[in-house]
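Revision sheet: structure tokens.
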Amino acid sequence: MMIVLLGFLFGVFIMLSELNKFDTISGMAILNDLRIAKALLVAIGIGIILIFFEVKLNVASYHLKPFNLGGVVIGGILFGVGMAILGYCPGTLIISAGEGSLDAMIGIVGGLVGGLVFTLLLPFVKIFIGPHFGKISIFTLLGNNTTFTFLVSLVISLFMIYSAFLLNKKDENKSMDWFYAGLLLGLLNPIIFLKFVQNRPIGASTAYPYIIDRLLGLTSNPYFLKIQKPGEWEVLFLLGAFVAGFTFSILRRKFELKLIQPRWEKYKGNLPLKRIFYAFVGGFILIFGARLAGGCTSGHILSGGMQLSISSIVFAVFVFLSLVITGRIFYR
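Predicted:
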């Protein structure tokens, strides 16, 4: 029940600045709506300091993702492409589906197929995942000097928050909802990190291969056995996010079964089959890329960024570059 509640809060905080909306994410891809970048910078900046102190007080642990160069780079590029075309992330797909977004629902189906294909092809794609550098972060590279690592983390934290306000000056959307969303996400993830709460970070993309493998009975392969525990957790977490999307859209009288979102119609027209095709393909690429990289926006960029994980930093860079390049080409 606690996991569902945490997922519900995650969904509410995301919805606060409409970070789950197609128009917001596709707007990020063409750089005329920077709410996602601003909220992430604030959340990560706050989380860096909070998790640092939690670990030092021994009430939390770091959960670094391994730095597998090929998987992180190629996966990041694919993830950015899928995110731009689809207009959602693995977690925001679920929230928007709760609000009635039909394109998000189709993206979920594409993501499930992407998770299935990754499971089946994993023995063949392993050669692209390396070289392997292990679980490293800026903290592990700096050594065990607590004072020095704290000062470095403080500087990075303040720089990220300051950068969010610099971006706000250039953004067309001047609402401050992004700050409150970032602040709350920056508090929620460190709470989930606590040993007496969940002792793990937020994540979303593992749920997709877990669900499809479970539905098809593919539960004896090594990959499913590896992701079974985090997959179960993420399903419950995303269930809470879905309930948040559905509940608040009903309460605010904004629930609507809608396939064509405004920004899609502006750039790509209103043909249903066209949107269905790209939503499915985008979802497929998104989840396949996430699984190749070992994480997504929430599991890699948000949670990994708070830990100053090298793999997450590299992933974020390639996702952003791929997202913007794809956005410039796709939304002409």
